[in-house]
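thought: user wants a sequence for this fold. calling inverse folding tool.
action: design(structure=
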């Protein structure tokens, strides 16, 4: 084996090892993703239902005024919305609201909060009271 081939092989092995390390070791910090989802503010209109995986509609493309369109995860709630419905997700709330034409407002859960995250010391203290009262629907075991 030539010296240059050995160097390339060593670098490829090192890169593969690093990627494997990241996949195995990287801690699953769901806390930051849940908090980021609660903090997001969305006001817009549903333009289209989207399947990010083939044959499975789970997301909606939202057209927002004076902002870029965004894609949000609705999961099983995708059947509760129609193209043309207005959607509102207030900042610092785990709920979103669907305003259907000529119908009453529908409240859906946007973020579910596992008890382990709720009890984590990094979970914002100002949200803990809301979790015990207004948000209690979104706390899961």
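)
observation: tool returned 141 residues.
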């Amino acid at each position: 084996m030539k010296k240059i081939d050995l160097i390339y092989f060593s670098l490829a092995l090192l890169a593969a090892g690093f990627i494997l390390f990241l996949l195995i070791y990287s801690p699953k910090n769901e806390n930051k993703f849940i908090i980021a989802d609660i903090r997001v503010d969305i006001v817009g209109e549903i333009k289209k239902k989207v399947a990010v995986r083939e044959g499975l509609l789970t997301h909606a493309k939202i057209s927002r005024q004076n902002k870029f369109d965004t894609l949000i995860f609705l999961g099983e709630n995708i059947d509760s919305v129609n193209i043309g419905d207005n959607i509102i997700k207030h900042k610092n709330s785990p709920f979103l609201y669907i305003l259907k034409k000529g119908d009453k407002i529908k409240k859906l859960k946007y973020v579910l909060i596992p008890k382990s995250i709720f009890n984590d010391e990094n979970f914002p203290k100002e949200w803990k009271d809301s979790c015990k009262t207004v948000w209690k629907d979104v706390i899961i075991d």
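thought: summarizing for user.
answer: Here is the designed sequence. The beta strands are 42-50, 59-63, 70-73, 86-89, 95-99, 106-109, 113-114, 139-140.
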